[in-house]
Amino acid sequence: MYDFSFSRESLNREFSREDFRSMPELIDQGARAEIVASAEGYAADGFSRLLLERSNVKGRDLYQHGSLPKELVLRKLSRNLRVITKVRQANRDDIVKSLICLLGEGEDFDVYRIDIKNFYPSLDRAYIDSLLCADSSLPAASYSVWKSFSESLRSQSISGLPPGLSISATLSEYAMRDFDRGVANLPGAYYFARYVDDMVILRFGKPEEVDFLKSVASLLPPGLILHPVKTRKFPFREKAADISEDGSLEFLGYQFSVSKRYKEHNKWMRKVSVDIAKNKISKIKSRIVLSIVDYLNGGSFRDLEDRIRIITGNYHIYDHVKSFRRKVGIYYNYNQITMETSVGLPELDRFLKGMLLSRSGNVCRRLHARLTPDLRRQLLKYSFSSSFQSKTHYHFNSTRLSEIIDCWKYE
Predict the structure, then answer these.
(1) Whole-structure pTM value
(2) Among 370, 345, 351, which Cα is nearest to 289's?
(3) Which pLDDT belongs to residue 208?
(4) Helix/strand/coil (H, E, C) string of 4-63?
(5) How far is CA 345 from CA 246, 339, 341, 367, 381, in A?
(6) Residue 245 pLDDT
(7) What are the C-alpha distances in Å from 89 to residues 99, 114, 122, 322?
C-alpha cells in the first residue's frame, strides 16, 4: 500500500542517484539520516524560507533547489499528487507519431498550433490552491506542504510556479486537467494534444463559423493567455495549395512537410515528411560555432572534440524533473525524422564540414591555422547523418557533461 505520509522512511526513498553523485557524503548512513530528519521537520513545521537558486537563460528564469532536505519534501509532495491524480506529462514521441498519421489524411481539416505565453510563471497559485483544497483525496499533510511551499514563493515575490522544479511540472499538469478535457470536447476537435505549453488541435469538417481560438482561450486556467505570435491556424483544405505558404508546420522541434492531396487505392491521402525544425537547426549550428570559439580562446582540443561528439551524437543526461537518466541527442531528440527526405541532417553535416575546412571568415581562418591536418581529420569523422542512422552513443559522467555544455549553457 502506498505511503502518503512524510515520514522518515518515505522521505528516505526520495533520494536520487544524482544526489549521490553530487554529494558523495550521502553514502554515509548518518549523513543521510541527518538530512531526512531535517526534511521531516520541514514537512511538519513548514518552510520558513525555500532557498532557490535562480539562473537566467534567454531572458527566462529557471530555478533549482538550494536545500536538499526541502527538495526531498517537495519530491514527496509531487509523487503524492501523481499517485492521487494520475497526472503525467504527455509523451512527445506519441504526439508526433499521431500527428504524422493524421496529417496524412485526405479530408478537409484545420490544424491549430497553439502556445501559452509565459506558462509556469503565469499560472495562478490561488486557482491551484482552490483545486487542491476541493480535492477530498488529498491528505491533509500534503495540502499543508503545498501551502507552505506557496507561501514561501509569495514571500520571495516569485509568481506562478518556478520553472525547473519537478513539483512545478506536476502542479501545472494538475491545473490543466479541466482545460484538456474542455478542449478535447469542443465541437469539431478531432484530435488534441498538449506538451507542457505547446498544443496542437486538428479540427475536421467545414471551416468554423465562430472563432475557434476564442473558445480555446476561454477554457484556460486563470492567469494564462495564448501567445499571439506563436499561435496560428493552418488550413488543410481541398482548394488550399498546401498547409501554408511554405508547405510546412513546426511543432515540438520538428518540421512537418505535407504534400497536396493525391488518390491511392480510391482513397485521398497526403504525404508527410518530417525533419528537424529550422529553429533547432539554427540552435545546433550555434553550438558548433560556440564550441569552436571556446577552443580558439584557449580551450583544449579534448573539449572541442567532446562537444562535437555531443552535438552530432547521442548520450545520457539526468532528468531532474522525472528523476531518471534518459537518452538524448540527434537521434533520440528527433527519432521521427524521415531519413530519406531529410534536408536538415545533410545541412548540418555541410555546415560542420564547412567550419572545419573553410579558410574564409575570422573564425574559420583562425581554426584552420590552429588545427593540424591530423586533428582536422579526427573531427571530420563525426557526422549527424551517420550518428542518426547508427544511433552512435557516447558516455560522459555528470561532471564532465557539465563541463562540456558550459560554453553554450546560456546561449
Answers:
(1) 0.86
(2) 351
(3) 67
(4) CCCCHHHHHCCCCHHHHHHCHHHHCHHHHHHHHHHHHHHHHHCCCCCCEEEEEECCEEEE
(5) 20, 8, 10, 23, 15
(6) 37
(7) 17, 17, 19, 10
